Every structure is written in C-alpha cells, then in structure tokens.
Amino acid sequence: MKAITIDRYGGPEVMQLRDIAVPEPGPGEALVKVAFAGINFMDIHTRQGKYRASRSYPVRLPCTLGMEGAGEVVGTGPGTTRVRTGDRVAWCISWGSYAGHACVPEARLAVLPPGTGFDIAAASVFQGSTAHYLVHDVARLQAGMTCLVHAAAGSIGQWLVQMATRRGATVYATASSEARRALALGLGATAAFDYGEGSFAEAVRAATGGRGVDVAFDSLGSSTLRASLRAARVRGLVVNYGNVAGSVTDLDPIELGEAGSLFLTRPRLTDHLADAATVQRRADDLFAAIAAGQLKVPIDPRRYTLDDVAVAHACLEERRQVGKALLVPESAS
Question: What residue numbers bound the domain in which 77 lies?
Fold first, then answer.
C-alpha cells in the first residue's frame, strides 16, 4: 500500500510517499481500510518534531503520518472484542491514517451510526471531541455563562462556538478577517473582534460591562494568551489548548494573581479519551447532534491525495482554509 512516512523531522520535504506492507493488527488492534484521513495541525507538529519527547502523544520516528481517520474494519488482532470486521469506524490520536490501511487500538475506535458518511466522520471526530471535552468537562459551560473563542473560524473554533451556544452560553469570538468574523457570527457568536495585538481584551471587557468572560478558550498561545488573561473575569478560567502561534515560555504564575486570581489550564485530548466508553460517548453525542441538524461540520471542499499532502499542509499552515481538509488515501497514483 502507499503511505506518507517520515524518518526525520523538518519541513514538508521530509514527507515521503512510499510503498509499504499492509500492517498486521496486534493484540487489541483493528486493521482499518482508510476511506478518509483528517489533515490537522497535529500532523504538522508531528512532522516538525514537537512530540518527539511527549508522554501524552508518544509518536516516534520512523512513523506514518495522520492521527485521524475513518473507514471500515477489515481485520482484527488477538483479544479484540469491541469491533469486528465490517464495522464502520472513526478515530483520532492514533497515528498512521495517511495510508491505505491503518492499525488502530480498538479503545480509540468509535463505531459509526448508520447514515454517517466516512467524510463527515473523519472531519468530526478530532475537532468535535476536542470541543466536546473543552465545553462539557473543562469549562462546564452552562446557560448564562460567557466565553471567548479565539480563531473562531478555524476547525475547532467553529465547533466551540456551536457547542457553547447550544449550552446556552454567550460567545465572544476573535478571527483574523471580516469574512471569518462574519462566519463566527453566523454560527451563533454574539460579537466578533479582530485580534488587534491584544485589543480584543478591552473589547470583550466593554461588551461584558467591564466584568470579563467566565472562560477564555485560547488555541494560539504566544500572540494572545496574556491578552486572554485580561479578557477573563476575576477567578475566571483560561484554557490554553493549543500553541499554533508559538508557546508561551516566560509566564510567571504571579501574573495569574495580578490578573484576578485566574485559573489557567493546558489540557490535552488524550486524557479526555481515557477509555473506549468515553471515546464512544463523545462520538455518539457528536453524530446525534449532526444528524439532528444541531451542529454544522466545517469541511473544506477540496480533497487531497497522498500525492499532494505537502500542498494540504501548506494550505493549513498559511490559514488558507476555514473548514476541515480531508485526505483520500486510495486516490494516490
């Protein structure tokens, strides 16, 4: 089969399209024929080596890229009991989906309900599960609460805006252009602001009568985090769940006190997909809401093949898409 592999870290040039053997599922694993793979910043970060020493995400060289996908189970390893051949499944946080087939631990697999397409599943499971745990478990948003969502036109941002408004929270958003801010408003945000070198903090405080938001969701990091602290209310919560703009390496905890005795957390999805039951529960919630028309899935209309993965990575890094990009492994030449 064809696969995109790396044996060193670096730019797009380290990705190699290779013919490799179809893997054999080990104990507790399923072999899945990949219909669609999601293209994510985590794939770029894997290529760049940001997880080279991570305990949360222990992906190591050499590896096949792609940590999200959807497809059909075509084989199972010893001791596999949850899924069987023929099941339609989706997964994330298991590497190897930039390929025709992938071996996935069954504890990472969510069985899809009838009628859910592989494209919808592959575009939903990672970002949808991320937004689900952030809204339901970390922020515990309820009706009457307020939150700030950065990069609200991005894949996770769109999910957060929709899920937060479904919970009855008031959402303030930021985005980099007027068109993207309009998208956030269309998804339910009450107001949307430019990043403006941190000026959004003052805009948010003005919109909340000087109080600040209960929760700030910050996926950017170095360019926004300190201003996010200013946008949060006294004893508010700041959730730094990504570092797309770079890591904050010089934050003194005393700043949290000075900003109003704030709580700051840096959660990771893997700790909120701790077992098969949780994986399936989150997926069931997502796909039921999608089927009911309560959540819109942001999908980029383009489809990439293994031959043009470098183009897909460039579009993602340069923010030239507002929906989830998908890879079709079997389309490779």
Answer: 2-126+271-331
Distance in angstroms between the alpha carbons of the first and the last residue of the chain: 11
How many distinct structural domains can be found in the chain? 2
> Can you give the pTM of this predicted structure?
0.95
Q: Are residues 197 and 118 in the same domain?
A: no
What span, in angstroms and rounded, lies between the C-alpha atoms of 137 and 227? 24
Confidence at residue 278, expressed as pLDDT on a 0 to 100 scale: 98
**Of 266, 301, 319, which residue constitutes the final position of a domain?**
266
Question: Is residue 111 located within the same domain as residue 13?
Answer: yes
117 shares its domain with 151: no
Q: Tell whether 148 and 259 lie within a shared domain.
A: yes
Please report, for the domain that includes residue 189, its CATH number.
Answer: 3.40.50.720
Residue with tokens 């390496």, as numbered in its chain? 249
Q: Which two tokens stand for residue 309?
A: 């993965």
- Boundary of a domain, candidates 220, 236, 266: 266
Neighbours of 58 (CB within 10 A): 11
Residues 227 and 192 in one domain: yes
According to the model, what pLDDT value does residue 332 have? 45
Residues 6+ apart with CB under 8 A from 171: 146, 147, 148, 149, 152, 160, 161, 164, 165, 184, 188, 189, 190
Residues of the chain with pLDDT under 50: 332-333
Query: Phi/psi of residue 39, each to 5°?
Result: -110, 120
What is the pLDDT, as a whole number, of residue 318?
83
Q: Is residue 136 part of a domain?
A: no
Q: Which residues fall within 8 angstroms of residue 292, CB to CB, at 6 or more apart? A: none
